[in-house]
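Fill in residues.
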């Protein structure tokens, strides 16, 4: 929600309207532990801590797919492997991380 609120006020208001009816997934203690490990191992750089939270919220809620246009820190093919490896350290499984375009290609 913090990211959605940033930037141009009118655009932010439009984004907030778009997600108004989408329920928020709660955080948990496990989220902070896994996020910390992703940052320590540089699977996700510290400057992208919010991106690590997106990933780990999906992990703790057993989300199957995490769709993103963020090719720098989340859907980056090199980083994906590292992210999955760190998450496995917690006996958890990573969602399948892909761009919307990749998802469409899978289901065509």
């Amino acid at each position: 929600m913090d990211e959605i609120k940033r930037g141009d006020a009118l655009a932010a208001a439009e984004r907030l309207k778009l997600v108004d009816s989408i329920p928020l997934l709660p955080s948990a203690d496990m989220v902070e532990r896994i996020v910390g490990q992703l940052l320590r191992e540089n699977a996700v750089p510290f400057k992208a801590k919010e991106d690590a939270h997106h990933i780990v919220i999906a992990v703790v809620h057993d989300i199957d797919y995490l769709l993103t246009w963020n090719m720098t820190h989340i859907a980056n093919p090199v980083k994906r492997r590292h992210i999955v490896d760190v998450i496995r350290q917690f006996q958890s499984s990573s969602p399948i991380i892909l761009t919307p375009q990749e998802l469409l290609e899978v289901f065509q």
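The two ends are 32 Å apart (CA to CA).
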